[in-house]
Every structure is written in structure tokens, then in C-alpha cells.
Amino acid sequence: MSADRFASTSPTTPDSALAVPEPRHGLSRRAILGGAAAVTGAAAMTAATVTPAAAHSEKPSTHWADYEHAFPSVGSVKRRARLVDYEVVELAALLRARVVTAVQVTTAYLDRIDRFNGPFETYGDNGAYNAFVRVDRSGALAQAEAADKQFARARSSREALPPLLGIPFGIKDSVAVQGLEAKDGSHAFDGNVALRDATVVHRLREAGAVILGHTVCSAFSGSITGSFAGNAWNPAYVPGGSSQGSGVAPVARLAAACIGEETGGSIMMPSAANGASGIKPSLGTAPVAGLMPLSPGYDVLGPIARSVRDASLILSLILGPDAANDPLTLSAPDPFPAMPLTARQGSKPLHGVTIGIPQTDWMRTSQGVQAGTAPQDTYDADHSAAFNRLKQQLTSLGATVKEFPGLDVTLPENDPYFSSSDVLATVDGSVVSPSSAVLSPNRYEIRYWDAVKEFAATRPADQAAALLSQYGRRAPGETAASFESATRFGGAIPASVRVEGEKRRRKLQANYQAALDKADVDFMLVMSLGAQIGLRTGGGFPVYRAYYQLPNALTWPMVSFPIGYDSTVGLPITAQFWGPRFSEPEIVQAAIDYQDHYPQYHNAAPPDPVFTAPPKVAPRELRVESTTPPELSNDPLVAEEALR
User: Fold this and answer.
1) What is the pLDDT of residue 8?
2) Beta-carbon neighbour count of residue 424 at 10 Å?
């Protein structure tokens, strides 16, 4: 398939050096210039925000000055051990003050990739982190050199500088980067070269980002656990998927930040497993043009970084309408509500905020879905202790934290869509469920199967066979519907049935919103993972949210952030805020406020691993991950069926 159709729209110093010197006179800037003020209770709390770049009608260079308040003064940047330990906003301040150069920053990350990543183009265990599956070294260094020239010009011209100028990024392997192959986790897509950047990548470049290359993802973006990459804190453990490398790279200090993709858990799970700070946006917030799709109407692109303020900055730069290439972005507010970039002042920044803990957000364990058991009762000792500590911390910041029923989606009257067993119609002998009534026509309309088939026709026989096996006819005896049949099936679903599916999806959204309103809850607090994750060799998630795909069905946003580390292996423990559609500013602000008062978790760095075995160069296997169990699938039609 052409990438145009399927994978696109549109002097050196090692990292151990370069701790920030004392600022020179005149280099400091105020940390907050303007911003939005909110008064709650008796305390006035101010946080810097910014109207998204995409909402401006002017050329980008005319509004970059709006972002200057996002960056701390150089004097306030805490000295860190290594250049790669600085957050994005801190690096931006240091680069602007010319304390460091973009080439130095980029080289520091490339050096770590050389030391710890292992061989590229490996969909399997490469003997190291394997966070990056390919790197454009010469391209990245050229971008960094161009950034340094722009910094030099600005000293005399006083031109406004793009917010991410000189900051190195990784991009998930399913997102188009011009001139690079995008393979979606499999050599079956060898040769899928992007003709142009995805909209999100284009916007990152406009904002000055240095694109390092592609981060590895699960095979065909199909698994929320993953085994290709090694966990940032201990490479023997699973990294979470499907955005595996995007979750690992920022925490392992192989990139300053990354872009991930989620259809059902694929940003939240790797963020959780690696202790990253990630944002899964609402459907329609950021364009997905240039993404190799899985389920149009669920697929979203979002940032994964080390801090939530970094992730919020990135999201503010990639969101906004893309009417020509992604009509779903027209459903978002324009301009989008200003994204927060700094913490609110005062000791009680969360005063007036009510955070609910849904008691029917069931967990899945080795015994299956634990319906009827409060989620907290399934957590292991370390996760339970961290969760209780988090509740106390949030309360100390002024929030009201309370348990409330939430919405039990195991009850048919509550969930007419997500895991409903209702049959809306029968088409050619196959039943149409509410979710398939929505997703199958969406796949049909983007020529999902046809695009794969046309690409396969241009490839060698073994590659074509792998593609047709994955997307076309299933092996004898397999009962799961193929993408071929499901796509053609989508084209035969009557319009009235599709409308009914959409109505039911909206009813589910309304039911969940009503549950929040009834309890006077602003947004929710959950843990996507409730116990220590497993080893890459046959492990997984022993305890995790059974309905991890529910936020995608609801189209609602989530933000993940670390809250501690377990007492045995030292793996991260994380929590997530999630709320109604387009509530990103609210849930992100709360997470930024939390990290401002409790920075020890997101500032922690894993020890550099020692890889004793020689790097592995895996054979060119077209698919190496074992078949994903349906309950761990990123495909909603597969995962939801496992819940019915």
C-alpha cells in the first residue's frame, strides 16, 4: 500500500556532563508571564496556560511568544546530573539562554541510543531496550544544527522561537515520518515509506522538534502488554503496549518525549508500566491523519513524556482542527480550551476539585473480571499503599477525594453499547453488535482492507502472505472475523443500524456523565495496573482494569502519572485521572499541580542497565509476538467481545 494512503497525510558532549552552570546576569526570566487566574475559596491560584497553536489563524511564528511563560527562568532550573535528565520545558529554557546547544542535546540522546537501545529494525528481543526500531541520525543532527542557527539569529533579530526548538522526539512506528518506513510493529510492512509527515509530526516540526526516528510498537499495534521493548526500569519486564518504545524512551532517557497512539489502552498502559507521564486525548482533539489506522473513531495520538507539564505543552502544539485530512477534529472546540503549562500557586491548588474513585471500574485478575469486588481490594500491597498515599496527598492539596459508584457497565441498562450483547441486525448471517455497527462501517469507509490488499500486491510473496494472513482470510478453524470480512461487512450494514449504534454510544456517554453528576464528581481517579507487572518471557499484567478500552469507547481523555515504586523490583506504580470529553485542561492541571508538590516520582531516573549478553540481531521475521489473547487486544471489536 502506498504510504500516501495508509501511513501519511501530510561540538558534542556526553550526557554525563553538562550540568547547568550558575546563570549569568540578565539570563533569568519570570516563570509566569500572564496566564489564566482562577480564584477558589480564599486563595488566588494562578497557572500559566496557552491557547493552542493550531487555533491561531496566523502563521506559527507570530504566536510562539505566547509560549515563553511556559518555560522556567534559567536560575530556577534545578541542576541535574545529566543533560538527558532535564524536562522538555527546562531544556527549552537552557537552549534559549544558550547554556547548551541543540546539537549537544541531540548528541546526548543519540549517544544513549547507541549504548542502550540495541540493533534497529528488530521486532523482538534485541538484547537491549529496543525502544527505537529505527533512527535517522543524519537527519536528526541536521535538524539540531538548523535549530542552533535559528537560536543564533534570534539573539540579534529577537524573533520569537518555536517552543520545542531543538528538543529530540521519538514517534510511534505506526505514524508517518517523511522518508522513513512506518511498519506498525511488523516487517510485513517493509517498504511502507511515508511520502509526507503525519499532521502531528508536521506540527512538531513547525514547533522546532528534532525527530530522532520511530519507536517500536506491538505487532500491528495489537497488544497492550508487549514484549519487543524492555521496561525502562528493568528490561526483563514487559513495557506495556502497543506504544512500547514511546513509553520506554523518555523514562530511559533515549528521547526527551515521544508520540504514542491509542485505540484501547496503548498510551495509558506503556505510560503506566514505565512510570511515564502520558496523555490520551479525547477523540478529535489531535489529528490522526498519517496514522496507520486500527479503528477509526477510536484511534487517537498523544504525548508521552517524563512530566505532565511537558506532555501538556506538546499536546497544546499538536491539537487543533485538520479539516482536510481528519474531519473528526471538527468536533472539538475551536479554539480548544487553553492547556495548562505550569502549576497553580498556593498550598491548596486543588481546593474545590472533587475527584471520584469509581467502585464499579472492575479489575481483571488471573481469575477473570472481578465484578462485585471494589477495585482497591484487588491491588497488591505496594499498589494499595501507594494508592492510599496518593489519596492523602491529593486531599492535602485541597481536593475532595471520595468513592462513588461510577457506572457498572456489566448491567445492560447502563451500557447499551460498549460490551452489550444486543443484536442490532443480521447481515449475511453475521450479527451486528452496537460497537461493530459503528466501527465496521468506519473501516469500510477508509478502505481499510482494500488499502492493505493493494499494498500487499506490490510486495514479495512472503510479505504479502503475512499481510493477507493478518488482515485477510483467517487460517482454517479460526472463528474470529477477518479484517477483510469485517470491512466488507461494514459496507453492508444499513445506515439505520449504524445510526442506532452511534445513538447507543452517545447514550453510554450520557449515562457515565450522569453518574459523575449525581455524585458531584469533576473527574475520576483509577489505577490501570493494580499489581507488579510480569516478565517479558510469558508475563503480562496480573491485575489490570478490565474495561481499559472504556475511555476510548466514551471518547474521554486520560492522563497517567507515577506515584511510587514497588518494594521488590523497583518498578513504577502509577495512577490515572480521566474525565468527560475535552476535559483535558482540568485533568492535566490537577496532575501538574500534583507533580509540582510531589516531584520525586516523575523526576526519578532508572539506573543504566548492564546488558551482559551480546546484542541480538533477530532474523527478519514477519511476526514474532505470539497471538494476543482477546482480553489484552488493542482492537475494540476483539477486546469487547471477550467481555460479552
Assistant:
1) 33
2) 20
Q: pLDDT tens for residues 69-110?
A: 889 999 999 999 999 999 999 999 999 999 999 999 999 999
Query: Does residue 404 surpass a pLDDT of 90?
Result: yes
When pLDDT is averaged across residues 236-246 and rounded to a whole number, the result is: 97
For the chain, helix, strand, coil in percent to 5 are 35, 15, 50
Confidence at residue 52, expressed as pLDDT on a 0 to 100 scale = 52
Q: Are 637 and 435 in contact (CB under 8 A)?
A: yes
Q: How far is CA 225 from CA 34, 173, 502, 628, in A?
A: 42, 16, 30, 9
C-alpha distance across the termini of the chain, in Å:
34
Question: Which cell numbers hold the place of 585?
Answer: 485542561
3-state secondary structure of 585: helix
Give residue 34's pLDDT: 24
Q: How far apart are CA 251 and CA 248, in angstroms?
A: 6
Helix (H, G, I), strand (E, B) or coil at 40: strand
DSSP 482-519: PHHHHHHHHHHS-HHHHHHHHHHHHHHHHHHHHHHHHT
Active-site residue set? 172, 242, 266
Amino acid at site 356: G
Give the C-alpha separation, 299 to 289, whole Å: 10
Upstream peptide bond of 366 is cis (omega within 30 degrees of 0):
no
Please count the other Cβ atoms lying within 10 Å of the Cβ belonging to residue 344.
27
* CB burial readout 109-148, b (16+ within 10 A) else e: bbbbbebbbbebbbbbbbbbbbbbbbbbeebbbebbbebb
pLDDT tens-digit map of 355-378? 999 999 999 999 999 999 999 999
Task: Indicate the DSSP class of residue 71.
Answer: S
- The strand pair at 523-526 and 354-358 is best described as parallel
8-state DSSP, 617: -
DSSP-derived letter for residue 344 is P
Could you report the per-residue pLDDT of 440-482, keeping only the tens digit for each? Answer: 999 999 988 889 999 999 999 999 999 988 887 544 343 344 5
DSSP 276: -
Question: So what's the pLDDT on residue 50?
Answer: 61
- Which one is predicted more confidently, 289 or 628? 289
pTM of the model as a whole: 0.91
Q: What is the dihedral of CA 207, 208, 214, 217, to 10 degrees?
A: -30
**6 vs 141 pLDDT, higher one:** 141
Q: For residue 387, give every residue at least 6 positions away whose Cβ sits within 8 Å of its Cβ, in sequence order, or none.
A: 376, 379, 527, 563, 575
The set of residues, in sequence order, having a beta carbon less than 8 Å from that of 629 and lying 6+ positions away, is 642
| C-alpha span between 512 and 533 (Å, rounded) | 29
| Cβ-based neighbour number of residue 477 at 10 Å | 5
Whether the CB-CB separation of 448 and 485 falls below 8 Å is answered with: no
3-class DSSP assignment, residue 427: strand
